[in-house]
Design brief:
Rossmann fold, globular, 7-stranded mixed beta sheet, single chain, 148 residues, alpha/beta
């Protein structure tokens, strides 16, 4: 699923993510960009719901960096790089997760030291009055640009 969408509520953001989750395969990487409060964690809650994981269990992993949720059709690995200046996937153990059997959702991917070719980039922008624009685009597999 790629394209641009508009959400008028957190529930709509979660529903869009739940629909996306149905098409995700093991090893999928999602890079969620947006300002604080834009709805990145709400989007991950929707992914969880769409994967059969309790969305209420999903919290922002800001202080622990990584949360892993199991119990659905695939494990969901939720990463928040907000507190890091630059992160290398090797340093925080994400290379194993990326190659694993789950879906990896990374908040603040602009802090990654290197690109994630083949990832799905999700940009969420607050438009005010509970409205969000959400753009989904694939990063080319041969990409050498760092996500921004």
């Amino acid at each position: 699923m790629t394209g641009s969408f508009t959400s008028g509520s957190e529930a709509e953001t979660r529903e869009l993510a739940a629909r996306l989750a149905a098409s995700l395969e093991p090893g999928a990487v999602l890079l969620l960009s947006g300002d604080l409060g834009a709805g990145k964690t709400a989007f991950v809650r929707g992914l969880a719901k769409g994967m059969g994981i309790d969305p209420d269990a999903v919290t922002s992993p800001t202080f622990t960096l990584v949360h892993e949720y199991r119990g659905g059709r695939l494990p969901l690995i939720h990463v928040d790089l907000y507190r890091l200046e630059v992160a290398d996937l090797d340093d925080i153990g994400l290379d194993e997760a990326l190659a694993g059997e789950g879906v990896v959702a990374v908040e603040w991917p602009e802090r990654l030291a290197r690109p994630v070719p083949g990832a799905l980039e999700i940009r969420i922008q607050d438009r005010g009055a509970n409205s969000r624009s959400i753009a989904l685009a694939l990063i080319p597999s041969d990409s050498s640009a760092i996500p921004s």
